[in-house]
């Protein structure tokens, strides 16, 4: 696999003005890796901001919509409207709504109106929750010149209940939004889970594995496609899992099914 560019290593916190460096990488290659300290610095929050909510991943409901019959995915979902402002942002939680993707973006589960349980208070009450969404929304707004984002938050656990867990059973895809942030909460007793990012209209791509809790990959969904390889248990007698928080940012409104 060819590299998209020379800067696919994780951007550390000590990289000068972070918003500028992130914008440059997104402009140059359509994605940017951040270690936990860099994400924390960007969003003015601790590097371990998700740690207090880790027990909430243990209580995620099963995803009842998997078409491959698997039992390996658990999730919750929430929607927000974010308006970046000088020195901060206005964040409002939207009424709970279904998740929808057209078939053009998700050939396996697209075209379905999928209702998931809402994010619980353990997540929404995190001191860093507003800072995380606001920090990311602000840096994305500078790239796109957008004054309002429609944000969907997906709390995922992929586990090895079936022996193999598939973070992206639909394969390499776009989400139909402007930007995507995948934040690793934790990995436990697994191998695999390699992230792959490819040019939308080309053959070049990169591969890497998010290992550090709090690290993230930011994606320009209009320029790249992405996938994550299956996970398997590291030990035959021990369950394994991969916990992530996926945030999507879209201008112009949420994705809705055709009227």
From TrEMBL:
A GO MF label: dioxygenase activity
Organism: mine drainage metagenome
Protein name, as recorded: 2OG-Fe dioxygenase family protein
A Pfam family this chain is assigned to: 2OG-Fe_Oxy_2
């Amino acid at each position: 696999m060819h590299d998209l560019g020379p800067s696919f290593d994780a951007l550390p916190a000590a990289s000068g003005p972070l918003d500028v460096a992130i914008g440059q990488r997104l402009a140059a290659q359509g994605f940017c890796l951040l270690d936990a300290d860099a994400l924390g610095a960007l969003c003015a929050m601790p590097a371990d901001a998700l740690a207090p909510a880790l027990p909430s991943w243990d209580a995620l409901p099963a995803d009842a919509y998997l078409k491959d019959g698997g039992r390996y995915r658990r999730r919750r979902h929430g929607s927000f409207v974010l308006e970046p402002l000088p020195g901060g942002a206005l964040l409002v939680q939207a009424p709970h709504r279904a998740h929808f993707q057209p078939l053009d973006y998700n050939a396996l589960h697209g075209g379905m109106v999928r209702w998931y349980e809402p994010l619980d208070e353990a997540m929404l009450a995190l001191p860093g929750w507003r800072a995380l969404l606001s920090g990311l929304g602000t840096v994305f707004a500078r790239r796109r010149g957008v004054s309002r984002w429609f944000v969907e938050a997906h709390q995922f656990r992929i586990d090895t209940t079936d022996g193999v867990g598939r973070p992206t059973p639909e394969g390499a895809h776009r989400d139909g939004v402007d930007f995507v942030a995948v934040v690793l909460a934790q990995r436990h007793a697994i191998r695999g889970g390699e992230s792959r990012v490819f040019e939308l209209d080309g053959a070049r791509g990169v591969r890497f594995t998010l290992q550090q809790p709090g690290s993230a990959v930011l994606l320009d969904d209009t320029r790249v496609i992405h996938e994550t390889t299956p996970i398997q248990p590291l030990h035959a007698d021990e369950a394994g899992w991969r916990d992530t928080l996926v945030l999507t940012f879209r201008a112009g409104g949420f994705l809705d099914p055709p009227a």
